Amino acid sequence: MIKIGVRVVRGPDWKWASQDGGEGHLGTLVGLGVRGDSRVPEGCGLVAWDHDGTGLYMYRIGHGNAFDLRVYDSAPLGSLHPGVKCANCHVDPIPGARWKCVACDDYDLCSLCYHGDKHNLGHAFLRLETPSSKVTKLPPRKDCSKVQAQGIFPGAVVTRGRDWKHGDQDGGDGKRGKVVDIRPWNDEFARSAVRVRWENKHENTYRLGFQGKTDVLAVTATSGGHYYKYHLPIIALEPLQRSFGADEYVRVDSDLETVRAMQPNHGEWMDKMRYVLGRIGKVVRQFDTGDVKVLVDGEEWTLNPVVLDSMMPTTTTSRQGARAEASSGGGIKSGDSVRVIGDVSKLKELQKGHGGFNDSMRKVLGCVVTVIGIDKDGDVHVKHGDQQWCLNPQAVEKVDGSEASGGAGEDGDGAEMLRRLLASALLKAFVDK
Question: Cystine design at 222: which of 22, 155, 181, 338 (Cβ 3.0–4.6 Å)?
Answer without folding.
Answer: 155
